[in-house]
Amino acid sequence: MAALEDIVRKQKTGARFVISAQMLRVDAAAFDRAAQQWLDDGGPGFNVTGVPHRSVVDDAFLITRVTVIRTTAEV
Fold this sequence. Notes:
By secondary structure, the protein is an alpha+beta fold. The chain has a three-stranded antiparallel beta sheet with strand order 1-3-2. It is globular, with a radius of gyration of 12 Å.
């Protein structure tokens, strides 16, 4: 997910921003799997804050957008 790293690098430490499936050009199922991992372990250079946004896709509630905060960790 090179696009994810590019998005995160553009943010300053402490900045809150949104990452969505559409921004990363992935389907909702793939984004949901990644977002579940980010909720547990944090992402590359960010932590998830707040409640993830879920949408109904093929009769399942999948995470399609998360609000995150930039950390000082390397991307």
